[in-house]
Amino acid sequence: MRSSSSRGCSRSPHPGFLARRHRSYYLFVVPALILIGAVIIFPWLFTVWMSLFDWTIGSVAHFVGLANYVGLATNQRFIESIVHTFYFTALAVVVPLILGLVAALIFHREFPFRGVLRGIFTMPMMATPVAVALVWTMMFHPQQGVLNYLLSLVGLPASLWVYSPTWVIPSLVLVEIWHWTPLVMLIILGGLAALPTEPYESARLDGASEWQLFRYITLPLIAPFLVVAAVIRTIDALKAFDTIYVISQGGPGTASETINLYLYLQAFAFYNVGNASAVVVVFFTIILALALLLLYVRQRARWT
Predict the structure, then answer these.
(1) What range defines the domain where residue 275 resides?
(2) Residue 62 lies in a domain
């Protein structure tokens, strides 16, 4: 009886059942594939196709092949926009990571009114980027801005801030730091809350100092959370547009013109659709390379 029951339980499903299951599977998958193709794949292929044409809105498109890409390789303004983008991204990722780590270590400790202060510290990230940009635009004003007034209180000379070609990108990064450091802090706080206590107890019994605890236990254990925060900040910094456009419009001159602003001007100010499409393809390639690099770092930062 047991052997016959076992043989009955091990029978494979009926072929008709498998066919119906496969049909029902495609009924769910095919609409999603059509939607992805219509929303993502087709616009991307159309952008690549447009990048092969000399096409200005209102005129006839002429096929030029890779001429738009060759022109970008020798376009000094485009090359400078790439440099500005990486400069802005590097500062907007590294500084919030450091400050967010420090803030997380502080707020992870027990002290009076910790919850209230933590809530106040996270308030900037709740504001919209355009509202933040408008407030900081007033603060950056050389004569009427509060920042130069604060500098005068401590005896420091006034600064031109976003009106200086040298300081415009660091000034814009200052806005990013104020706006997004709380997000980094929250990510790292989640990692600190999940850390085990046994390694710390053993290390303290061996006489380890606070710096040694941080250097050899805390930092390696929260490394995956730091990488996650770095990935999120890198994505946000690379696609930053609204804050830069509202505060500086890429100026003074082109001192803060990133790839996004250069693309916006080519597409919506000069109506050069072919060249703008080539910029999109190049920018996508850069983002894809950075994404692969960050994914590799993320895999290497796994807990062991």
Answers:
(1) 68-300
(2) no
